[in-house]
Amino acid sequence: MPLPPNLNALILAAGRGQRMRPLTDRVPKPLLPVHGKPMIEWHLLALAAAGVRQVVINTAWLEDQFPAALGDGSRWGLTIRYSMEGRDHGGALETAGGIAKALPLLGETFWLVSGDIVARGFGFDAAAAQRFTAGSDEGHLWLVPNPDFHAAGDFALAGDRVRRPPENAARPLTYANLALLRRSLLAPVLPGSVAALGPLLFGSAAAGRLGGTLWQGDWHNLGTPAQLAALQATGSGPACPAALPAPESAA
Length: 251
Description:
This protein is α/β, with parallel strands linked by helices. It has a single domain, classed as Spore Coat Polysaccharide Biosynthesis Protein SpsA, Chain A. Helices cover 23% and strands 23% of the residues. The protein has helices spanning 39-49, 65-70, 85-89, 94-102, 126-134, 198-206, 225-232, and strands at 9-12, 33-34, 37-38, 54-59, 79-84, 109-114, 117-118, 139-145, 156-158, 161-163, 173-182, 210-214, 220-221. The protein has a seven-stranded mixed beta sheet with strand order 5-4-1-6-11-8-12, with helices on both faces. It has a two-stranded antiparallel sheet with strand order 2-3. Helix 2 links the parallel strand 4 and strand 5 (79-84). 44% of the residues are buried. Residues 236-251 have low confidence and may be disordered.
C-alpha cells in the first residue's frame, strides 16, 4: 500500500561544529558516524520511511563532502537537493538565514530537522504534516524536557500552544530541533542574510501562532565528542518507525 503524501524536508547541516573539534576539522558534524552510519543518514532513513520524497540539505563547512557521501538520495528512495551557502555566500547563514535561502526548494509548509540530533523513533508523521498544513500556525515544534546543557530552557506548553515565559518564569522545555514550519515565518529574513531562528520562534510564540508537542522519546543533541561517544556506547542505532519503502522506480 503506498504511503500517504508527506511534505518536503530541510535538514540543517551547514554549521562548523566548533564544540565537536577536532573531529569536525576534517569531517562535517552531520557526516560523523553514529552506529556505523553518518548521523544524517538516520534522518534520511526516517524521512523516507515516512513517505517524504524531497529533501533539501543546507551546507557550508566542508560542503563538498555531502554530495560525495550522500549523492542524489536515490539509494533511500529520495531526491536530495543541496542549498550551498559556502559556495554562494562564503559561509553559513545561521538557521533562519539558511532556511530562507532554501525556501525556493521547499513548499508552503515543510519539515525541519537539525543534522546533529538523534531522535530514535521520531516518525515525521504525514498526518501531523497534513493537519499543520490545513491550519494557520506559523510553526509546530517538538519540545523536550530541558537537558543538562540547556537548563534555562526555551519554552513552556499550554495544551498544544507553545509559550515563551518571561525571564523570571520557568521555561521547562527546550526546542528539540524538530519542527513543521510555514514559509511565512521566514518573511522578515532577506535571502542571503545571516539570521537566527530563535527570535522568530519567540515572536511567533508571543503572538500565539506556534503549536507544540512534548517529545518523550529518545533524544540526543550531539554537540561534543563526549556526547557522541556516550551515544555510541548505547544500543545499536536509531530505530526507524517503519520499514524503509522501496523507491517508486523499483516498484
